[in-house]
Please model this.
Amino acid sequence: GSCEWYLIRLFYLGEIKQAGLVSATFLNVTSEKLLEEELNTVFESIKEETKKESILVIDDSELSQELIQNVFQEDYNVILASTGEEGLNILRKKEKNIALVLLDMIMPHMGGQEFLSYKNQIKEVADIPVIVISAQDNEDIQIHMLENGVNDYVTKPFIPAVLKQRVKNVLEYNSRFRSMLYEYRSVNETQKKNLYETDK
Model:
């Protein structure tokens, strides 16, 4: 069931009476080989994760977390948080890696609305899109959330395929918007530079 690896070095010493003399040394490199395989597994895992976008799920229900993770884990890195405070801390630490937030509304200590208020005040994470997933099927609440910067509102229980498509739509829209914004700023900077040079 187990195997060992040896590094064998052969040295040709010469010939005596038409017989070749060879010296050999044996070195057991099993531990180094096992370590190398472990490291390769870790590196491959890291490489695979970095290819995927990350979604932050903020929900105090373990069942909801598990359901959402099962829906998205194949296509995204799913990061879980059980409270609004925990979600804010993760956003601050991993702001550049998180593409979207899936947010529950009713949570202890800090609910979804309070989380949004704090998030929108933090310049570095204010533009990260948010989709609310809530059992509150109230039209006024949905409109209020959309007016306060939420990108979409999904009611529980949700249909996995529909939720996946809504996440995809929001991410694609956000990506196009960022590209357009970058292009606009580049053109604007070029025009300012040209005007400056003309004034000279």
Q: What stands out?
A: Residues 116 and 148 are 8 Å apart (CA to CA). Helices lie at 30-51, 62-72, 84-93, 112-121, 139-147, 160-199. Residues 160-199 form the longest helix (40 residues). Strands lie at 6-16, 19-28, 54-58, 77-81, 98-103, 130-134, 152-155.
